Amino acid sequence: MSKVSNKTKIATALVGALALAGSNLVIADPLSDVQKADSRIHAEAATSQKKVDKYFDQAQDMVFEYGSVADERESLKSYNNYVAVLVADQEATMKLIQEDINGVDTLRQGVVPLMFKMVDALEQFVALDLPFNLETRVNRVNNLKLLLNSAEVTLAEKFRLILDAYSIEREYGSFVAVKTGQLELNGKDVLVDFFNLGRVALYAQSLDQRSAWMFNDETKAWDQLDDSYLRELTKGIRIARKQGAPDLFSLPIPAAEAAQ
After folding, report:
1. Residue extents of the structural domains in the chain
2. Which residues of 57-78 are buried (b: 16+ CB within 10 A; e: fewer)?
């Protein structure tokens, strides 16, 4: 053929351009797929990382909770050991108390006769002692005798009152006291001041201070004192009433009995 016409050249150029364009479109499709896959991988990786972080936090919380539970367990174990010791001590105490309760009847059997003997001995002692505060002391003994047969008073209270009576009698031996009363002499009642030096001696002086007597424990009678003792007895009475300063005074006293 002679020469290719210009139209043929243009057509050929168009076909080539279209072919090149089609080739670029075909190459672009796989690249887009790779980019999408990479984005999806990054997204999935981020999601997985979030899950890993979540599980790690949960694991840390569980570790902390386990430590707290372990500490609490040790604390409870120590407390349980402490309570066990207390319970054992309480059980031992209860055992001792029960033994005491079981022995109450035996103790009662021994204490009751003892109390009766103590009251009887106190009654005899008052009867044989110098007759000072005699009415008060006799009434105290009689009340104790009634008390022993009373069901309204506990055994412990009865025993306490008996000991109180003994304590009062003991204190009488170390005090100096004066009490005004009547003294029967030769069938007549004379108003006197009774003056006792503990349990050593008991005196009586008329209120006009002109006569005085001393109780004779052997004869259970009142012996007339010599007038020389009136002044001394008056001094002792004033001192006992705190009407005079403490001072020495001289009075006769009964002779000490020989030891049996």
Report:
1. 176-248
2. eeeeeeeeeeeeeeeeeeeeee
